[in-house]
Write a structure and sequence with these properties.
CATH architecture: Beta Barrel
Organism: Stieleria marina
CATH topology: Cyclophilin
Oligomer: single chain
Number of domains: 1
Distance between the termini: 38 Å
Structural class: alpha+beta
Radius of gyration: 15 Å
Catalytic activity: [protein]-peptidylproline (omega=180) = [protein]-peptidylproline (omega=0)
CATH superfamily: Cyclophilin-like
GO biological process, one term: protein folding
Number of strands: 10
GO molecular function, one term: peptidyl-prolyl cis-trans isomerase activity
Largest sheet: 8 strands, antiparallel, barrel
Strand content: 25-35%
Strand order of the largest sheet: 1-2-7-5-6-4-3-10
Number of helices: 3
Keywords: Isomerase, Rotamase, Signal
Helix content: 10-25%
Length: about 210
Amino acid sequence: MNYRALCATGAIVLGSVIAVANAADELKADAAVTVEMTTNLGTVVMELDAQKAPQSVKNFVTYARKGHYNDTVFHRVIEGFMAQGGGLDKFLKEKPTLAPVPNEAANGLKNAKYTVAMARTSDPNSATSQFFINTGDNHFLNRDEAEDGYGYAVFGRVVKGQEVVDKINEVATQPQPNPAFPAMLMRDVPVEPIVITSVKILGDKEG
């Protein structure tokens, strides 16, 4: 059931894609990228694996450098499963995105608690700006166990601020109308918005 919910939320909030050039510099294949994400519930530090998930990491870095994640929200939280964000503003309106990235779920990284993965629709190669933090060990999202045979690509993990992730995991949620499709409901929306105020690439001259 959770697997279907994750697919469904991407299908609802992923609207038209704006294809623009990816301006991110090439990342060193053997280097980890450290990211500081500040939210209204605290700060989370993530380590992104540019060696095993180069396209996903490059994609995330591009959005971070552009300031895309600033003032977005975690719009979908399912306790014990995941917290998804990075695509909607405070009014639950979708922000423009770059072209999708290839699914890198075959990289060997697992959807374990506190890992970070790309959110997508039922199309395996539809991931853009949205990501989710696993708040449980979700083995059924891994490539080798996924119902669709593709899985969800993990590209990093939380190395500091796990207590903040725990706070997000425990917030109260409710259904809310989808601004893009008023007749449809978005499920599991936090009652009090969880706002991402900034995402910085630590040590990045451009960030």
